[in-house]
Amino acid sequence: MAKEIDFHFKSPKDSPGYLLGQLTMLWQRKLKKVLDPLDITQTQFVLLAAVGWLSKKSDAVTQIDIANQSNSDRMMVSKVLRTLQEKGFITRQEHETDTRAKIIRLTNTGETVLQKALIEVENADLDFFAALNENLPSFNSNMVKLIEKNKAE
């Protein structure tokens, strides 16, 4: 007979990692439904949103800024930004003072797609998390704590 495997948790429902993984998959599935008609992936949306958000405060948003804002791998960000450029959603221009950096800007088409995507994603989020009711602010606060504690790893 095979050796019995020891689990720390008595049930998958006791495992925060398992639950987070399940929740994430369900949420991503919901977002895919609303983003597919706009011809963008969730990762593309996240980076477009980062460009849009950072552009509110700076005219010189770089790839590194976007990676930091989205807690994303720099190489992955570079690849996805190239795809977004090919789709006509962003431009990448030489930085005036840093020859290694590129300035990333939304195009008019990118702004339009991002605005449509924001409406769809925000509505999907409100629907997805509606069951939390008045507990949503606490849920968000706990997620922020976890992100802050673990983002350096």
TrEMBL record:
Occurrences of domain HTH marR-type (ranges): 1-152
Alphabetically ordered keywords of this record: DNA-binding, Transcription, Transcription regulation
GO molecular function list: DNA binding; DNA-binding transcription factor activity
SUPFAM superfamilies according to UniProt: Winged helix' DNA-binding domain
GO biological process annotation, one example: response to stress
Ubl conjugation is among the record's keywords: no
A Pfam family matched in the record: MarR
Record has Cell membrane as a keyword: no
Entry protein name: MarR family transcriptional regulator
